[in-house]
Structures are given as structure tokens and as C-alpha cells.
Amino acid sequence: MGAGLGRHSIFFAQQGFDVSAIDISDYAVNYLKELSAKENLDIDINLGDIMFSLPYADNSIDCIFAYHAISHTDTTGIKKLVGEIERVLKPGGEVYTSMCSKESWKFVKAGYPKIDENTVLIKEDGPEKDVPHFFANREDILNLFNNFDIERIRHIDYCYLKSKKSDCKYYYINGHKK
Prior knowledge:
Mean pLDDT: 94
Helix content: 25-40%
CATH architecture: 3-Layer(aba) Sandwich
CATH topology: Rossmann fold
Structural class: alpha/beta
CATH superfamily: Vaccinia Virus protein VP39
Pfam family, one: Methyltransf_11
GO molecular function, one term: S-adenosylmethionine-dependent methyltransferase activity
Protein name: Class I SAM-dependent methyltransferase
CATH class: Alpha Beta
Number of helices: 5
GO biological process, one term: methylation
Keywords: Methyltransferase, Transferase
């Protein structure tokens, strides 16, 4: 989910996995199609918005990998999105995802407008300007993924990023659908 230019999709396909990729960007989807053809990899590549409805049947997916993709919404959207993840995963299916941490500078100190109690509208110039970002703490994650057996939640602080000090924190979550 949120395949972008496809580095993870390519890697997993090279390891022998059957891979389906989805992204909202025409450019990214076309790039991944060209790259997978060049690498002679059979990847099911879809253009679509993961926030609305995943184009997969109920209980049809073994594993979802979505790093730095699902937080681009508000509280209502994240609940719907986690519901979609649950819908398409097979029982026992695995999820590997990440969420922005409420301890991050962007949530605590940046002064960005809040859409709801968990969501800010990013105002920095760049590709995420005016894009909502959902931020969570451990309890929020456990509530959102209450129909999953959570194996691990890691809280990572990127305190130095792109040659400068940073205060950018993320949760990395993996679990299994009950």
C-alpha cells in the first residue's frame, strides 16, 4: 500500500513473493510498471487511493506492507483505512506499517493547524504541503488495531536526518489479523 516508485515491491517480487502494489500517483504507478517489466517481474500494479477502498476481495491478502503511507489522513480516515486492511487480510495475515508519533515536532511544536485531536495539516513547502497527517501514541495504535495480535511496536526517533538535527518520530507496527 502506498507503493510509490516500488522499491519494496521490486524487492519482494525478486524474493519470489506474489506482489500487488497500489499507489495514488500516476507517475509512480507508470514508473513501477516500466521498472517491473525491465526486471522481468510479474507485479499486479494498481492506480488507486488506499483511503477509500482497496481493490482486493475480502480475506484475500497474506501480508500488507505500508511504511510511511497510511498516516496521510485524519482520524476518521485512519479508522476506515485500518478497517480496509482488516477486510482484505486473510485470518492470520500479517501487517507491517508505520504511523507518525504524537511526540514528533510536527505534532507538538510546529504549530500546524489541527484538523482533529490526532491530525495536523502540514504547512511546509514540498509534496506534503496541505496534506493531513494522522499522529498516534501507543494506546491509539492498540485501539485502532484491536482486531490484530500485535507482535511488536517500535518507537523510533530520527534525531538526525538529511544532515541536520531532527525530531521526527514514528511507530513501526507489525501484527497478525485475529
